[in-house]
Design the sequence.
């Protein structure tokens, strides 16, 4: 690995990255390990609280390529071997065991406390040679023919200007550059909010299912239950923003009422003790209509955000951060502001997001849920679903045709009884 030295005050960086979350730190590590001079501007002071604690098995491939797996393994995170999907009334349950999918190469993942996990990734970027400036709020940027300049403010109020050949926007939901260009487009019908917190003594699965994430589907909303430690669980309720408004309740009241009226959750909460106040986050799924332009690339949630029901967020963020860094490294070598590989990055990112969006959009529909919660063993269809929900995004034909068959059957189930008519609630 080449050493990534810091430029002097008047010397441009190769790449400036806005945001030190998983997408930003992955891009920073990838570029620094390639010998590029990288500056990360992160507005928060790490460690900081963040939602999205459940990872997917295919994250492991990126961890290995970044050289960070040994640090993650030593951090003592909870092992995740499967994902369980339950009906809110407790009548139906499906468990995906990642070790038993015939199209899945990685048998397990980890559940992480994001404050600790994100801090670990960002420190790894430092160890690899990237310079990280925390509590640095980006105020504006300008794209020139030969460089990008940014203005930012430090915690003490001082302002500085820096320049680089390329800018990676990994600013997360703040979507910094795209918002300035009015490029955000919302998915119709998916304006949701999440109400969540950490709890002790939630009755979570034991034995071979210890460490499983639980997804509990209600009629028009859902819960996540993610074990972070033996006695510590992240629990969140995701519901339509309009439905929340109609409840006319405070977030804590709405959360408590949903726990009480959802048998599959309430039974696990009999001894639960709330550790933190509930947090509230907007979960408005969106896409940006442009991900690359001369000297600018958007990654992670700044490339688009989708409902977290299948825990795809960190995987998609890190995959885009890694590929984005790779195409920028090549563009620097070619001394070009925009390359075909950058445009291919945009196409690949959209394909990955669309792969999960098809599942998300259909999961809320009863005819899909009736099929999903009564899985068939025929044609290894569930193995194909397992592969995608484990994080495999480059799909062989053997997986693709099985997915198309599954979605066709779900479509057909709306018109005729392909699956038993169960009540979805």
Sequence:
């Amino acid at each position: 690995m080449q050493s990534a030295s810091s430029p002097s005050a008047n010397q441009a960086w190769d790449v400036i990255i806005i945001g030190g979350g998983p997408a930003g730190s992955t891009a920073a590590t990838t570029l620094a390990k390639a010998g590029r001079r990288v500056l990360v501007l992160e507005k928060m002071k790490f460690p900081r609280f963040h939602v999205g604690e459940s990872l997917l098995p295919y994250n492991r491939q990126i961890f290995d390529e970044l050289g960070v797996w040994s640090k993650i393994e030593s951090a003592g995170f909870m092992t995740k071997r499967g994902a369980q999907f339950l009906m809110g009334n407790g009548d139906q349950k499906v468990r995906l065991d990642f070790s038993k999918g015939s199209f899945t190469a990685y048998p397990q993942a980890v559940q992480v406390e994001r404050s600790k996990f994100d801090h670990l990734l960002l420190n790894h970027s430092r160890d690899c040679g990237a310079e990280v400036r925390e509590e640095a709020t980006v105020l504006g940027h300008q794209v020139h023919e030969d460089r990008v300049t940014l203005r930012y403010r430090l915690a003490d109020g001082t302002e500085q200007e820096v320049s680089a050949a390329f800018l990676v926007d990994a600013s997360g939901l703040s979507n910094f550059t795209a918002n300035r260009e009015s490029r955000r487009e919302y998915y119709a019908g998916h304006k949701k909010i999440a109400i969540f917190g950490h709890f002790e003594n939630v009755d979570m699965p034991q034995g071979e299912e210890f460490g499983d994430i639980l997804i509990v589907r209600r009629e028009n909303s859902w819960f996540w239950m993610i074990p972070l430690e033996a006695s510590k669980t992240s629990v969140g309720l995701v519901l339509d923003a309009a439905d929340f408004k109609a409840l006319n309740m405070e977030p804590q009241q709405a959360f408590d009422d949903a726990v009480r009226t959802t048998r599959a959750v309430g039974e696990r909460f009999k001894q639960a003790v709330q550790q933190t106040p509930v947090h509230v986050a907007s979960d408005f799924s969106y896409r940006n209509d442009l991900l690359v332009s001369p000297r600018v690339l958007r990654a992670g949630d700044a490339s688009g955000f989708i409902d977290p029901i299948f825990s795809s967020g960190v995987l998609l963020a890190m995959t885009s951060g890694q590929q984005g860094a790779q195409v920028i490294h090549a563009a620097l070598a070619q001394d070009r502001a925009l390359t075909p590989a950058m445009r291919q990055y945009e196409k690949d990112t959209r394909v990955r997001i669309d792969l999960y969006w098809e599942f998300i959009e259909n999961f809320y529909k009863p005819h899909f849920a009736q099929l999903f919660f009564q899985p068939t063993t025929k044609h290894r269809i569930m193995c194909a679903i397992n592969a995608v929900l484990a994080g495999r995004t480059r799909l062989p034909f053997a997986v693709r045709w099985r997915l198309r068959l599954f979605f066709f059957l779900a479509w057909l189930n709306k018109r005729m009884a392909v699956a038993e008519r169960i009540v979805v609630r």
